[in-house]
Write a structure and sequence with these properties.
The chain is mostly helical and about 775 residues long. Helix content is about 75%, strand content about 0%.
Length: about 775
C-alpha cells in the first residue's frame, strides 16, 4: 500500500496537553496511594492502560493522513510553544510506551511486592513514562529538550533505585553524565537548527527541509544532533552506560530497552531524516556509528554470562542496526525501521521479564549455572521460546518479517555489500543470544545448582505471554500493522512509501540471507562457551574500552578540579575581588577593541563637566591610594563619593545628588563605626609586590570604566526613552516629577528590591555594631 504526505491537521479529540499533564500528575498520585495502600500496586497498571486507550483513539485520524496537534504559546518572544503532535511515527512510539508499560507496571507490582520503597519506585516509573511520552509527542525542539532531559533524570532515579549499592550509584551516575553531556550537544544543535530554520517547530522544519538543509551551519547541526542521539541510544563509543544500567530492577530494564528511553536517539534521528537524509555528513556519520555499534555489541555479547547483560548487548546491536537503517536512502529502509522497532520492543520486553522471572525464582541470572528449567517452569519456558524465536527471525514470527525488510533495505544500499554483511553478523548473534536465553536456560541439561523453581504468579507471566503471542500474530498476519508501519515510514522518509508486509515473498536474496543467518547463528551458539572463554581472556577489551575510560576521565576531572581549587581558592577576599575585577576589566576592554566600540568624544562633549570636578575626583582617589590605614582610607573614599555627588548636582539632578550625599555620609559613619570596633587600625601590611599588582588591577578597571564612558559619550544621544517617560508620566502615573514616577511606578519592583537590599545591609551593620558593643564590657571586666 502507498502512503502519501499528510494533507491537513486536525485538533485532538483528547487534548494532548491534558493527556501529558495527567501522566505527570500520576507520579505523585501513585506515591500517595501506595504509601497508604501498598497492596494497590497492581491497580497502577490502569494508568498506562488508559493512556494506551487514548492513543488508540487517535489511530483512525492519523492513518487517514491527518496528524493531530495542540499548541499553546509558552515563550512567544523566543518563538517557543508548548506544541505537541501525533503523526505515524510519534503514535507508534506512544502505543509502545503505554501498551508495554501496562504490562511492566503489572509485572513490577508482583516482582517488587513487599519492597519498602515500592511507592518511590512507582512514582519514578510513572514519571519516566510521562517523560518519554512528552519527548516523542513534542513538536517544538525546546519542549523536546525539556522532556529529553527529564528521561535522563528519571532513568537516573530508577537505575540508582538501590542507593546502598555502590554499583547502582556508579551506573546511575554514569548514565546521567553520558546522556546529559549528549543533551548539551543536542541543546547547541537545537539552537543552531532553530536559528537556521527561523522556528523551533519540528513540523515546520521538516516542511522547509530543503532550505534548512542548505544552510551553512547544517554540518555542525548534524554533528551536534548526532552526538546527542548517540549518547541516548548507546552508540559506540558512548554505549557503556547501557549494559551497566542492568543493576536496576528488571521492570526498569524491560522498560528502558523495549520502549523509548534508549530509542529516543533513534526517534530524533528518524524525525530529522527528511531534512538531512541526503547530506553526505548525515549518511556517513550514521552509517559508521551504526555499523560500528553492531560489531561492538555483537562481540561484547559473546563475553557475557549474565542473562540481562547478554540481552543488553543484543539491544546495542539492535540500536546500531536502527541507526544504520536510517542512513539508507531506500524506502524499504524506513519501513524496516518501523517494523524492526515494533518487533524488537515486543520480544525484548518479554525476554527481559523472563530474565527477571528466572532470577526471581532461582536467585541467579548466570547462564553457566542455569539449565533444564522447562520442567519446573513450563509457562515461562514457552514464553521464552516464542520470544527467542522471534528474536532469531524464524518464521512464522514477526522477527522474520523484520529481518526480511532489513536485508532488503541493506541490499539496496547503493551496491555496497558492507551493510548487508554486518546485518548478517548482527542477526547471527541475535540467533545465538536467543538460543542461550531460551534453549540453554530452559531446555539445556539441568545444572542443579539453584533451588527448586516454579512458574511465577500470573501478574508476572501475563505481560510477556501477551507480547510473545503478539509476535506470533504479527508474524502470521503482518498486514495488521501495515497501515501503522506505513504512516511511521512516511514520517521517517518524508515521502510516499510502499509498504507490503508479508510472511512469504518467495525465493529471494533476503530469504537466502535469512537461511545463512540461521546457520551462522546456530554455529555461534554451538561454540558459545569456547568463544566466551576466548573473548573473556582478552583483558585488553576492558582495559581499552570506554567503560574504563569513563572511570579514568572522572579521576582526571577530579585531579583537575583539585588543582584548579588550589590555584583559585586562596582563602583571601582581596585575591577573589582582585581577580574578578581584573577579568571583568580585560573582558570589557578586549570587547571594545575587538568589536570596534572604542570611540573618543569631541572636545566640547568631553569637557562639559566643571573643570574642578575631574581634578577633585582624581585627588580623592589618589588620597585613597596613599592612605596608610583603613580609617584614613574610608574617609578618603567618602570624598570620592561626595565629589561624584557634585557631578550629579551640577548636571541638573539635585535629588540624585542629595541621595548620593546621604548614602556616602551614612556609609562613612557606619564603616568608621565598624572599623573602630575591629582590629583594622594598623598600617596596610601588604608587601610591595601585592601593592603593585593591586595598582595594576585598579588602573585596568579605571581604564575600562573611562574607555566605556567616553565611548558612551561619543555615541549620539537617543532620547526615545526620555520622551516616553515625559509623555507617559501624567496619563499613566499621574505624576509630573519624572524621577519619582520612574522610581515609584515604572520601576516599582526594582525599587522595592533596592530598598530590601539596603534594609538587609542596615540590619547586618546594626547586628555587627550591637554584637561588638555586647562583647566590650566582658573584655573590660576580664582585664580588671
Amino acid at each position: 500500500m502507498a502512503h502519501t504526505l499528510p494533507c491537513q491537521r486536525v485538533d485532538s479529540p483528547v487534548n494532548l496537553h491534558l493527556l501529558l499533564l495527567a501522566s505527570i500528575a500520576a507520579s505523585p498520585a501513585a506515591l500517595w496511594l501506595l504509601r497508604r495502600a501498598p497492596s494497590a500496586a497492581p491497580l497502577l497498571a490502569a494508568i498506562p492502560l488508559l493512556l494506551f486507550a487514548a492513543f488508540c483513539s487517535f489511530v483512525p485520524s492519523v492513518l487517514a493522513g491527518n496528524p493531530i496537534e495542540t499548541v499553546v504559546d509558552w515563550l512567544p518572544s523566543a518563538g517557543v510553544a508548548l506544541a505537541f503532535r501525533v503523526d505515524g511515527w510519534s503514535l507508534l512510539f506512544s502505543l509502545l510506551i503505554t501498551g508495554i508499560g501496562s504490562f511492566i507496571f503489572l509485572y513490577a507490582s508482583r516482582y517488587l511486592r513487599g519492597d519498602a520503597d515500592l511507592p518511590r519506585f512507582f512514582a519514578f516509573l510513572t514519571l519516566f513514562m510521562a517523560a518519554m511520552l512528552g519527548a516523542v509527542l513534542a513538536d517544538d525542539l525546546v519542549v523536546l529538550l525539556v522532556f529529553w532531559e527529564a528521561t535522563s533524570l528519571a532513568s537516573f532515579l530508577l537505575i540508582g533505585y538501590r542507593p546502598e549499592d555502590a554499583a547502582a550509584r556508579r551506573s546511575a551516575q554514569q548514565g546521567l553524565l553520558i546522556t546529559t553531556a549528549g543533551g548539551l550537544c543536542l541543546l547547541a544543535g537545537a539552537i543552531l537548527l532553530g536559528s537556521a530554520a527561523g522556528t523551533f517547530r519540528i513540523s515546520q522544519i521538516v516542511a522547509d527541509a530543503a532550505q534548512v538543509a542548505a544552510h551553512p551551519n547544517a554540518p555542525v547541526v548534524i554533528v551536534l544532533v548526532a552526538l546527542g542521539a548517540f549518547a541516548k541510544s548507546a552508540q559506540v563509543p558512548l554505549h557503556a552506560w547501557l549494559p551497566n544500567a542492568m543493576v536496576a530492577p528488571t521492570p526498569v530494564s524491560a522498560f528502558l530497552h523495549s520502549a523509548t528511553m534508549v530509542k529516543l536517539g533513534v526517534y530524533l534521528l528518524a524525525r530529522l531524516n527528511p531534512v538531512y537524509g541526503e547530506s553526505p555528513v548525515w549518511v556517513g556519520l550514521l552509517s559508521c556509528a551504526g555499523l560500528a555499534t553492531v560489531i561492538t555489541g555483537a562481540v561484547l555479547a559473546l563475553r557475557q554470562t549474565d542473562l540481562k547483560r547478554v540481552l543488553a548487548y543484543s539491544t546495542i546491536v539492535s540500536l546500531g542496526t536502527l541507526v544504520a537503517l536510517i542512513a539508507l536512502p531506500h524506502g524499504a529502509a524506513a519501513a524496516a525501521v518501523a517494523v524492526f522497532l515494533i518487533v524488537h520492543a515486543l520480544y525484548k520486553a518479554a525476554l527481559f521479564m523472563v530474565a527477571g522471572i528466572v532470577d526471581h525464582e532461582t536467585g541467579t541470572r548466570d547462564t553457566s549455572r542455569l539449565g533444564g528449567l522447562a520442567r519446573c517452569m513450563p509457562i515461562t519456558a514457552a514464553i521464552a521460546l516464542a520470544s527467542a524465536l522471534s528474536m532469531a527471525g524464524l518464521p512464522p514470527f514477526a522477527g522474520f518479517v523484520a529481518k526480511e525488510l532489513l536485508y532488503e533495505a541493506s541490499l539496496h544500499s547503493a551496491g555496497s555489500w558492507l551493510p548487508a554483511a554486518l546485518a548478517l553478523l548482527g542477526n547471527a548473534v541475535m540467533v545465538a543470544v536467543g538460543c542461550v536465553v531460551a534453549v540453554r536456560v530452559f531446555w539445556g541439561p539441568p545444572k542443579g545448582v539453584h533451588p527448586p523453581a516454579h512458574d511465577p504468579p500470573w501478574p508476572m507471566w501475563l505481560g510477556p505471554a501477551v507480547l510473545a503471542v503478539a509476535g506470533v500474530v504479527l508474524g502470521v498476519a503482518p498486514a495488521l500493522a501495515g497501515e501503522l508501519v506505513g504512516a511511521a515510514a512516511l514520517a521517517i522518509a518524508g515521502r510516499s512509501v510502499d509498504v507490503d508486509l508479508k510472511l512469504w515473498h518467495g525465493i529471494t536474496p533476503p530469504l537466502a540471507l535469512s537461511a545463512l543467518t540461521l546457520a551462522l547463528g546456530v554455529l555461534v551458539y554451538s561454540q558459545w562457551d569456547r568463544l566466551h572463554r576466548w573473548l573473556a581472556g582478552h583483558s585488553a577489551i576492558e582495559r581499552l574500552g570506554p567503560d574504563l575510560g569513563y572511570d579514568r576521565g572522572l579521576r582526571l576531572l577530579q585531579r583537575l578540579a583539585a588543582w584548579q581549587t588550589n590555584r583559585v581558592q586562596t582563602r583571601s577576599l582581596r585575591d577573589y575581588v582582585g581577580r574578578t575585577l581584573a577579568v571583568f576589566a580585560l573582558a570589557v576592554l578586549a570587547t571594545l577593541v575587538a568589536q570596534g566600540g572604542w570611540a573618543w568624544p569631541g572636545w566640547p562633549q568631553a569637557w562639559t563637566l566643571h573643570a574642578a570636578l575631574p581634578f577633585l575626583l582624581v585627588l580623592a582617589a589618589w588620597t585613597v591610594l596613599r592612605a596608610h590605614d583603613f580609617m584614613r582610607g574610608i574617609v578618603a573614599a567618602g570624598l570620592v563619593g561626595f565629589a561624584l555627588a557634585l557631578v550629579f548636582l551640577f548636571h541638573g539632578a539635585p535629588d540624585l545628588a542629595f541621595t548620593q550625599f546621604s548614602v556616602e555620609a551614612v556609609a562613612v559613619v557606619v564603616l568608621l563605626a565598624i572599623v573602630g570596633r575591629m582590629r583594622f587600625r594598623g598600617p596596610d601590611a601588604r608587601p610591595a609586590s601585592q601593592r603593585k599588582r593591586d595598582a595594576a588591577i585598579a588602573l585596568a578597571v579605571g581604564a575600562m570604566g573611562s574607555a566605556l564612558l567616553l565611548s558612551v559619550l561619543a555615541t549620539p544621544f537617543d532620547d526615545r526613552l526620555s520622551a516616553f517617560f515625559r509623555e507617559a508620566s501624567v496619563p499613566l502615573a499621574q505624576g509630573r516629577n519624572l524621577v519619582n514616577v520612574i522610581i515609584v511606578d515604572f520601576r516599582a519592583l526594582d525599587t522595592l528590591g533596592e530598598i530590601t537590599v539596603l534594609a538587609l545591609a542596615a540590619m547586618a551593620a546594626a547586628a555587627v555594631i550591637a554584637g561588638a558593643a555586647r562583647r566590650t564590657p566582658r573584655v573590660e571586666e576580664g582585664a580588671q
